[in-house]
Amino acid sequence: MEGGARVTVKAVVIIAGDNNVRGSLQFIQDPSGITHVKGKITGLSPGLHGFHIHALGDTTNGCNSTGATF
Do residues 50 and 38 lie in contact, with contact meaning Cβ atoms separated by under 8 Å? Predict the structure, then answer.
């Protein structure tokens, strides 16, 4: 990038899990470096849930090929 231009970076995750768990998430990092996460997940059982993020989307060798966890 010439002149140190700052850009917005985006990524999308499509979720297709067990028991009809489906959804999508959008990760949007604005030029200041702040990352916003928004989306919708359906099919979860009632109660609290959490998720973690891997550095890579490569699942060819399970979690061994997905890189660092955030």
Answer: no
Query: Which residues form the domain of 16?
Result: 1-41
Locate 58 and state its tokens.
């490569």
Provide the whole-model pTM: 0.69
Task: Indicate whether 4 belongs to any domain.
Answer: yes
pLDDT digits (tens, 9 = 90+) for 3-42: 667 889 999 989 998 889 999 999 999 999 899 999 999 9
DSSP three-state, residue 54: strand
* Residue type at position 11: A
CB contact set of 26 (below 8 Å; sequence gap of 6+)? 10, 11, 12, 13, 37, 38, 39
In order of 3, 9, 14, 31, 53, the CA distances from 23 in angstroms are 38, 21, 6, 26, 15
